[in-house]
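Issue 218. Parser rejects a valid record. Input:
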Amino acid sequence: MTTRTKLRSRILDTVHETARDLHTAGFIDRHRMRCYDALCLAPVPAYSSRKIRTLRQRHRISQAVLAAVLNTSLSTVRQWEIGAKRPSGPSLKLLHLLDRKGLEVLADAD
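Output the parser choked on:
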C-alpha cells in the first residue's frame, strides 16, 4: 500500500468515525450516514486471470459452478481465466466476497 493510499485510508477512517459520532448524537440523519458509509468503503481489488483460477481451485469448484454462483455464463468465466476479459461491476464484487468470506456466503443466497 502506498503512502498516499494509507493517508487517504486514515482520512476516510477519521471522516467516517466523526460522521458516525454525529449520527449517534442526532446531527446526521440515516440517509446522510449511508452516504458516508458508501464513501468510505474499501475499493474492490482487481482480479487477474491467475487469481480467478486460483480462487476457483481453492474452493474446488468447476468453471460451470463458478458461473452459476456468480450468475454469469460459463464462457465468461473461461474468458476471465484465459485473460481475454476482466470481471467488473457486480461480478467483481461477488468474486471479492467469495475470496473473503467463502462459497457458503454466495451459495446460501437463495
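Fixed in the parser; the record now loads. The chain is about 70% helix and 0% strand.
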